[in-house]
Structure formats: C-alpha cells, structure tokens
C-alpha cells in the first residue's frame, strides 16, 4: 500500500524529530529524495522554509507528464494497469485484499514502470546472494523472457522460503526476492489503486515555492520521470541547479553514473553548508 498523503506526513514527522535531537543543528538540515521520494522532497521543502538545502534525484515531478511517457512506453500495459487499479478500488470497498501490480515490468505487464530493461535494471539494486521466491523462480522458468538480463547477483536457489516469508505476506507472481542474510525483502508489487492518484500529483510545480538551494539530478532517457519536464519546471528558478546525466531511471543507482551523481551531490551540499557556516 502506498498513500501519498501518509508518506508526506512521514516526511514531516521525520523532519520534526530530527530537529528535536540535541546533537542536530535545526538550521543545517537538508532534504534528499530519489524517484518518487524526490518529488516528496520538493513538496516538503516548498512548505518548510527552514530547510537549508534540497537534493532531488530523478524526481517524480509531474503526474501528467509521467502518464504520457508511460502511455508511449506501452499503451497495452497501461490499460491493464488502470483496469487493475479500478478492480483494486472496488475490491477495497468490500474489504478484499489489494490487487497488486508490478512496480517494474515489460510491455505485457500492468506495471508502473515499463521498459525492455526495467526488471534487469531494478534487480541490480538487490545485494549479492539475493534469491528468488519459489513462485518467482517458477514464473521465470516458464517465461524466461520476463527475467532477461536479471542481475547475476540474484540466484534462483538458496535457503527455502518459509510460509509468509515475503515482503508482502504472499508470494506475488510479479516477483519477490530476499537478501542473502534473510533480510532485505523486495517485492515487485504495489497496490494498483495508486495508478489513479499519480496523475494528480505534481510536486514539480512546487519548485518555485522553495527558498533553499536545490539540486535536481535528472537522467535524460528517464521514462518514469521525464527529464525534459523537470528541466522545464526548474527553468528560471535561480535557486535550482539541474544536473543532466545519460541514462534511464535506474541507471543512476549503480556503476560510474552513481559515483558521478553522488560526488556532485556531496559537492553541492558541502558548498552549501560551508557557505552557511562562514556567514
């Protein structure tokens, strides 16, 4: 289950708690978010002008733009996602379990993020030795194309799963992995009803309300959070710096692109806090 309002409340609560700690300077707090959390960082910074700096990486900034990009990726898949979302909403009225849709997938899956490499790219974020759940391994055995390019750090065998030993309490067909240490569960599934809310969420429009220096890192081939839209929303905002990187949505989390982006973000934050300390 993902509720945008509840997540934003969590951000506000975390910020308030951080400021309450005696070892924390409340005037030297930065917000950092990535993907959907990047949009949350922008929304929170726009309403809290006590924040000293903001970093948003590949942020979700505009629901309509992401919807159009999603439609271009695969209209068939998007139709399936919205049907699943409607069924999920109707089912929730009668107390049914959530209808789960995959977070990442290929063209025939009713997924939120669709591209030929989405599953493979997302699997690279799992730690070495992660293993597939029995149901996921069975699906990939029958449909090898669904796991094309799966990270070599993910293994199909390993210690057996126990009943209920998944991140969502059930072994969804869309994919469940567990870290090698028995923790770090990752389920490629989320309640489909979110698809009906995403088009209404436009945190990129809040950029103009932010008073803190803001760094936005975008991947120019991003299909989930279109970089062109984010750059357009940031244009003309003197407090906003936009860094561009070659790659798709998940490319910034691994390899050389990750190292470059993190170095740029650290440099931005160091300069911001050094300048504040000198005043």
From TrEMBL:
The chain crosses the membrane at residues 76-95, 107-126. One of its GO terms (molecular function) is hydrolase activity. Keywords: Hydrolase, Membrane, Transmembrane, Transmembrane helix. Signal peptide: none annotated. InterPro entries: AB_hydrolase_fold, AXE1_dom, FrsA_esterase. Residues 17-60 form the Acetyl xylan esterase domain. Pfam families: AXE1. It comes from the Bacteria. Belongs to the AB hydrolase superfamily. This is Alpha/beta hydrolase. It comes from Actinokineospora soli.
């Amino acid at each position: 289950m993902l509720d945008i309002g509840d997540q934003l409340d969590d951000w506000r609560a975390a910020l308030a708690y951080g400021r309450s700690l005696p070892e924390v300077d409340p005037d030297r707090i930065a917000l950092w978010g990535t993907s959907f959390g990047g949009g949350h960082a922008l929304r929170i910074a726009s309403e809290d002008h006590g924040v000293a700096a903001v970093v948003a990486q590949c942020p979700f900034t505009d629901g309509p733009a992401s919807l159009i990009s999603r439609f271009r990726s695969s209209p068939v898949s998007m139709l399936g996602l919205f049907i699943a979302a409607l069924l999920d909403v109707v089912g929730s009225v009668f107390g049914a379990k959530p209808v789960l849709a995959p977070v990442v997938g290929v063209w025939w899956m009713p997924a939120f993020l669709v591209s030929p490499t989405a599953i493979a790219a997302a699997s690279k974020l799992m730690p070495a030795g992660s293993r597939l759940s029995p149901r996921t391994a069975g699906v990939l055995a029958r449909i090898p194309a669904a796991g094309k390019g799966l990270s070599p750090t993910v293994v199909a065998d390993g210690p057996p799963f126990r009943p209920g030993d998944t991140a969502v309490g059930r072994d969804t067909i869309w994919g469940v992995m567990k870290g090698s240490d028995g923790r770090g569960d990752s389920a490629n599934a989320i309640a489909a009803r979110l698809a009906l809310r995403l088009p209404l969420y436009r945190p990129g429009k809040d950029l103009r309300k932010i008073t803190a220096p803001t760094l936005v890192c975008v991947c120019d081939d991003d299909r989930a959070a279109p970089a062109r839209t984010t750059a357009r929303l940031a244009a003309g905002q003197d407090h906003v710096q936009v860094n561009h990187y070659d790659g798709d949505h998940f490319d910034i989390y691994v390899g050389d692109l990750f190292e470059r982006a993190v170095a740029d973000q650290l440099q931005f934050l160091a300069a911001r806090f050094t300048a504040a300390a000198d005043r």
